[in-house]
From TrEMBL:
<dbReference type="InterPro" id="IPR044399">
    <property type="entry name" value="Mb-like_M"/>
</dbReference>
<dbReference type="Pfam" id="PF00042">
    <property type="entry name" value="Globin"/>
</dbReference>
<keyword id="KW-0479">Metal-binding</keyword>
<keyword id="KW-0408">Iron</keyword>
<dbReference type="InterPro" id="IPR009050">
    <property type="entry name" value="Globin-like_sf"/>
</dbReference>
<keyword id="KW-0349">Heme</keyword>
<keyword id="KW-0561">Oxygen transport</keyword>
<protein>
    <recommendedName>
        <fullName>Globin domain-containing protein</fullName>
    </recommendedName>
</protein>
<dbReference type="InterPro" id="IPR000971">
    <property type="entry name" value="Globin"/>
</dbReference>
<keyword id="KW-0813">Transport</keyword>
<dbReference type="InterPro" id="IPR012292">
    <property type="entry name" value="Globin/Proto"/>
</dbReference>
<feature type="domain" description="Globin">
    <location>
        <begin position="2"/>
        <end position="156"/>
    </location>
</feature>
<comment type="similarity">
    <text>Belongs to the globin family.</text>
</comment>
<dbReference type="InterPro" id="IPR050532">
    <property type="entry name" value="Globin-like_OT"/>
</dbReference>
Length: 163
């Protein structure tokens, strides 16, 4: 799966607007929403201090826990990298390989990436005040598909290599 030049342009232009939010804040919004919309992923983050029993995890809770804040910042950095690397296939592959290996080492399951896509799209849509049917959101959805495919490929390769 590859993106058209128009889709890349939409992602890059919208990223220009999202940068004003800041990648760290964007990562916080994505991580907090993931933990609340997809509570089954909380188990992956127990060692970071994510509570299993609470119904809602606030942004302040994530901000006030160094390990959670660090991971949220990494999510924001990954989204920033993702938005800037589509024009360079080698850099994009390096990003997805690095993310795939890191997530395989942390025993993240492949299906967790199914949960992450809609969360990223909803946060991007909210921040840009766009409906889900927007061509910009559709471009981000296609872009996430490319990113997810690369991450999953790297996770499977890393796991099967026993690395």
């Amino acid at each position: 799966m590859t993106l058209s030049q128009a889709q890349v342009a939409l992602i890059k232009t919208s990223w220009g607007k999202l940068k004003s939010v800041g990648s760290k804040e964007l990562g916080l919004l994505i991580f907090q929403r993931l933990l609340n919309q997809e509570p089954q992923v909380r188990g992956v983050f127990l060692n970071m201090g994510v509570p299993m029993g609470e119904n809602e995890i606030s942004l302040e809770y994530v901000r006030n826990h160094p390990k959670l804040l660090s991971h949220a910042s990494k999510i924001g950095s990954a989204v920033a990298s993702f938005a800037n690397k589509f024009e360079n296939p080698e850099e994009l592959e390096a990003l997805t390989t690095r993310l795939g290996k890191a997530h395989a080492n942390s025993n993240v399951e492949l299906q967790h990436f199914e949960s992450m896509g809609p969360v990223i799209l909803s946060v991007v849509g909210d921040q840009l005040e766009l409906p889900t049917s927007s061509p910009v959101i559709e471009a981000w959805a296609e872009g996430y598909g490319v990113l997810k495919a690369g991450i999953l490929k790297a996770m499977v390769a890393h796991t099967s290599n026993g690395s």
